[in-house]
Amino acid sequence: MEKQILFTESQGFKQWWLLAPLIVINGVFVFAIISEPDKLIEIVFPFALVLLITIGLAISRLNTQIKEDGIYVRFFPFHRSVKHFTWDKFKTLSVQQYSPLVDYGGWGLRIAAFTGKGKAYTVSGDRGLQIVFTDDKKLMIGTQKVEEMKDVLKKLGRLSEQ
Question: Of 43, 45, 68, 120, whose CB count within 10 A is highest?
Fold first, then answer.
């Protein structure tokens, strides 16, 4: 039986300062290919790489759901399937502010090996659900729906004291 969805959020990269330069660079490559077809071999690999990065950012989606039986998250296209974390796997859950650059080195699928902050799935902003698992591993899931997420976790009795 399908569990009731209590919270849902879908986020994508919308930072113009991140996508605009990539689009301009792709345009330069297209112009170079058209104007200098004899250099196609030299241009095609870097163009393909920048194009893949641009498409990857444009289609990336961070989907988060809270259901009665736990938290579901998928960061497409990096996760092939939805990750389901049951309530018994959590030591603490808190919705908090963080510094994407200082704590995790930026946005995206991040591993903060040197800061001890654990993993992060973020696409924008500086607020998220900080999960500490029973094995003391950590995961930050970014959110733009801070109050809604807090309310749902409070109603479920799952939000740790902050």
Answer: 120
DSSP letter string, 36-85: -GGGHHHHHHHHHHHHHHHHHHHH-EEEEEEETTEEEEEEETT-SS-EEE
**Using one digit for the tens of pLDDT, what is the confidence trace for 17-63?**
777 888 899 999 999 999 988 888 888 999 999 999 889 888 899 99
Give yes or no for a contact between 11 and 142, defined as CB atoms under 8 angstroms apart. yes
Angle between helices 40-59 and 16-35 (to 10 degrees): 150
Question: Cα(first)–Cα(last) distance of the chain, in Å?
Answer: 34
